[in-house]
Structure prediction request, 259 residues.
Amino acid sequence: MAHDIDSVFKALADPTRRRLLDRLHRENGVPLGALCTDLGMSRQAVSKHLAILVAANLVATVRRGREKLHYLNPVPIHEIAQRWIGKYEGDRLRVLSELKRGLELESKEE
Amino acid sequence: MSKPSFVYVTYINSSPEQVWNALQDPEMTTQYWFGHTNASNWEEGSGWEHRRGDTVRLAGTVLEVDPPRRLVLSWAAPEDTENPEKVSRVTFEIEPTGDSTRLTVLHEELDDEMMKGISKGWPAVLSNLKTLLETGQTLAMAAKQCGDE
Prediction:
């Protein structure tokens, strides 16, 4: 599948592509021309990087009349967070609630 | 023409019909939308509501229905449905892609307040929907990330 997790990490393992994502994070829904100007790169170079980001589903495009607008798609990164970080969040909350229970028990016993 | 403010794309290992059904079925929406239910008769021009229990959280009108490809809803807080400034629009597009289905959610004409609410909400809801359709389970820990007020 075009959007498997390997393609997401490969797409992210390049500073120019991360700059492209940062650019879209600042302002979403921009045409190719604006991205080229901001990154100071040729259309050809930016298109090549965008194709990799699109294949990894990190960027989605929408046609508006004659323009093709590029959007940062946060869904794959959310899935990565869910897969690894979500678990630790759960543990942290559990530890906190055990600490709270422990402390409350202690203060009752005093 | 105004720009869409947010676009979310997820690929789900499921059929377009199953994805279409999951957007409208009250029981399924309750499972992946963190206890919120979408209710409507899903006919063009009808109202729809996004509820938690008996409380209406969002409401709007069903603008376009083209099963199993395209569903367009107006989207607002229940007190804002008559205020054009506060009404946004959500388009769901469903396309088969080889062995899976591509679901695109376009959320347009957002005001700042609604944008804050949805920018964290959609990725959580959509990855939960994907997990539900693919495994029959939902992500237990995701609920609090939805920014449920």
Remarks:
- The mean pLDDT of chain A is 87.
- The beta strands of chain A are 30-31, 59-64, 67-72.
